Amino acid sequence: MKHSVIFTLLLAAVAALTCSCERELDFNVGDTDRELTVYAVANAGAQFQAYVTRSFSTSRSPNFYQVIETKDDMLRRVYLSSMVVKDAQVTAVVNGSDRYEMTYDTTTTSYRCAYVPRIGDEVALTAKAQGFNDASAVTTVLAPIEIHDLQYEIVPDQAVDPSIRDSHPGDTWRDLYGADTVMRATFTFHDPGGVKNYYRMRVRNIGEMEDLPGMVIYSVGDVFKSDSPVFFDRSLPVGYGLWDKNFSDVFDDHLIDGQDCSITVSGRKRSWSKRRMIVELQSISPEMYYFLKSLMVYRISVDDVYSTPVQIYSGITNGWGVLGSVSGIPHSHRSHRFAQFFVFRHKDTLGLWQISDKKTKRHIFRR
């Protein structure tokens, strides 16, 4: 009897597991095709402009093959012909009183006006177009954050040693126009207490080469590294491009609220001449912070079929996109004294030459 009961229970469990039902789920995209996408950034001292485009459901996105026969760049043609809204009524109202009508500029494909944002301005943006919902957003122009005790140094990168490169892959061997040299900047700043603050760290290394008379080619690198805990981001378990995993150049002040913070950043020095490093700590508005954070998570998961779908943050009412404020003071440093590092190999010896206008040194890594 006991065995019969057990067999019956097992048979019922197997039947429950093997039986299934099918249910059709409706996929309702709502009024996606009636919503505008608006991108605008209010920078103090820079002419205000806004980009207005259509939004599409996944089943109604533009067909790239419609313009493949054109002479112009295909992607740009798709953007201009199928996405940009050129006849929208775009208005910026500053501090509730000053009204600016924005007009479409064919050169930049954006809407522009004579308004130049000032620190503390409240900017309300509205975009209207026939057949679309009225989109709107509001932001406040932020003051730039000041940095102090800024110092630069140029150091060789240990990633040129294969024994280190193999165990800790670096970006040296993938960055074709980067030198075997790192430019490093250290600075401090004070986070204002009593209010939530959001930041973006911008580091850019630039080199120039005059290919032909009057023609200059630039080598630019925006990727940087830092051991500061403010850049740690658990939501980025996978690296993107040359960016390390768990690393984000956008951060808030939850670790440094009301305190002084010291940061060291390093970026790959560029090849060619007139090499310089630009460091800029930007204050960004909350909507810009959440937009950039969600975009970072989206770009590492978009091709992963097992990842959870990511919704990119939108700060636009009745639409998509973001209106935010970004404010910062760029600091540029150019190495007037030429210094460059080159790898050399001779038989079983691997080393590094350090060449400058003063002296030449040889560093032996191993034999």
Mean pLDDT: 80
Q: Give the end-to-end Cα distance, rounded to a whole number of Å.
A: 79 Å
Tally the beta strands. Answer: 20
In terms of structural class, how would the helical and strand content be classed?
Answer: mainly beta
Provide the low-confidence segments as ranges. Answer: 64-71, 160-173, 355-367
Shape: globular
Proportion of residues in helical segments:
10-25%
Number of helices: 4
Radius of gyration: 27 Å
Care to give the gist of this entry?
The protein has 367 residues and is mainly β. The chain contains four helices and 20 strands.
Detail the topology: elements first, then pairings.
Layout: H1 2-18, E1 36-42, E2 49-54, H2 74-83, E3 89-94, E4 98-105, E5 110-112, E6 122-128, E7 135-140, E8 147-156, H3 162-167, E9 178-190, E10 198-212, E11 215-221, E12 224-225, E13 250-252, E14 260-270, E15 273-284, H4 286-301, E16 319-328, E17 331-334, E18 339-346, E19 349-356, E20 360-366
Parallel strand pairs: 1-16
Antiparallel strand pairs: 1-2, 2-5, 3-4, 3-6, 4-5, 6-7, 8-9, 9-14, 10-11, 10-13, 10-15, 12-14, 15-16, 15-17, 18-19, 19-20
